[in-house]
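Subject: sequence -> structure tokens, single chain

Hey, anyone have a minute? Need the predicted structure for the following. Not urgent.
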Amino acid sequence: MIDFSRLGRETPEERAARDAERRQTEIDADAKRRAECVDSTMAARLAEDVELRSTPSGDTVATLRCIALNGEAFTAIYWLPPHRADAADRIAATLRAGLGVRLAGYWKSRKWTDRDGNPRQVRELQAQYVAPYREPTK
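Reply:
Had a minute. Here:
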């Protein structure tokens, strides 16, 4: 038989401390990943409003269709941090078509075969940092 009296009950203060520690651990791990992965920084203009979607696992992803300052069009994918519940709302409200953005991240290539059997390939920027950018006035 199991002796349940030996199991300690967690107080609300202990639970709050544990949750705060877990959240801080997530924030620190996220900051470390972002610092390690960044190898490209650029300024661009948004060609469209930001597209937000959720994955089956519950993660939120922002797709930014951009035009670099040299005229090249590209797509940037930004996985929103799970510890920032308001990030999706802030991005949707702030980043609009035509706005300048500063992006930092790394380039990633994806290959797949479409429904017709044709091979496809795309090169995307996996953004680790996204912020509005205003060009300096002269």
